[in-house]
Amino acid sequence: MVVWPLYAEQRINRVFLVEELKLALPMVENEDGFVSAGEIEKRVKQLMDSDEGKVVRDQAMRMCEGAKTALSEGESSLTTLNELVELWKH
């Protein structure tokens, strides 16, 4: 994923995705706030072909597997969701 925030909370989302979760590469904006076609090309190639891109891709796969596990029968997310549904029923 590459991120280019435009409005409101998107700038903090960029920080979270790039620096905290390491799930994205940031776009570098021009002075006018836009991203050039060259920048897009550079970041996509970086994501696909560089060591930094591999780190992002590997992290995305780890997060995907973690989400699948959490949603599996008897795991934390599914159990918590079922508990919440039962609370709402009563």
UniProtKB/TrEMBL annotation:
Protein name according to UniProt: Uncharacterized protein
Organism of this sequence: Coptis chinensis
